[in-house]
User: Which sequence fits this backbone?
């Protein structure tokens, strides 16, 4: 479970979230939706313990980041993007390392098969396409077996076939009792896979169940204002 208590998040002088008091139970896929520059990555970094909140705090499975830092961090897996992968190592190397570091019982070879990575599992990261690198990232999340998975735009670079494969893997992870929070601009896919949706708007986190028209909700929040479109 993730609990937010009087949480305030800022980026420099800009307030991202003024006050948040909510909680998320396990076994959910949650979409994080907002225009670029709204603070999605900052929110994920705060949950991951990388960025200190301006006020308030987050608890994960009853653990506080400040007084129980090591145990708190064991609850989370978070890599911001494929730039954090090691260019000269392979997907297999990354998977083996993740399994060892997280003391995981997940079989890397099973994840390779699920993500259909056999043809490039032993190729250095620097030679892979963006979509292939995204598969490596997502595979590392699955292998970590961490209770809370935080993903920043994990669907970038995925073709329709890859998107379906990744969605199936995320559903499988959720069924094992995990909580997944991922940011995305693909509203159709958010509606397809998520149980709840978080909108960042006007310094608030607005939580909606995934029974509404996500595009309509997005338009009402962000296009009803005086927005200058490119």
Assistant:
């Amino acid at each position: 479970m993730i609990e937010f208590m009087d949480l305030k998040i800022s980026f420099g002088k800009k307030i991202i979230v003024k006050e948040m008091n909510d909680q998320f139970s396990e076994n959910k896929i949650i979409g994080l939706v907002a225009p670029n520059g709204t603070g999605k990555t900052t929110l994920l970094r705060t949950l991951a313990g990388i960025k200190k909140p301006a006020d308030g705090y987050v608890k994960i499975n009853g653990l506080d980041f400040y007084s129980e830092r090591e145990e708190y961090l064991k609850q989370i897996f978070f890599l911001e993007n494929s730039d954090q992968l090691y260019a000269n190592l392979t997907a297999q190397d990354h998977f083996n390392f993740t399994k060892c570091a997280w003391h995981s019982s997940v079989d890397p070879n099973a994840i390779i098969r699920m993500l259909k990575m056999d043809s490039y599992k032993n190729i250095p990261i620097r030679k892979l396409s963006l979509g292939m690198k995204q598969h490596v990232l997502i595979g590392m999340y699955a292998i970590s077996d961490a209770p809370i998975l935080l993903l920043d735009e994990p669907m970038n670079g995925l073709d329709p076939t890859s998107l379906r494969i990744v969605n199936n893997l995320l559903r499988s992870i959720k069924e094992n009792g995990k909580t997944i929070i991922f940011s995305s601009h693909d509203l159709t896919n958010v509606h397809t896979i998520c149980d709840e949706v978080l909108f960042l708007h006007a310094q608030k986190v607005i939580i909606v169940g995934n029974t509404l028209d996500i595009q309509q909700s997005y338009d009402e929040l962000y296009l009803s204002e005086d927005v200058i479109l490119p």
Remarks:
- Helices lie at 40-47, 69-73, 91-101, 108-114, 130-144, 160-175, 187-193, 214-222.
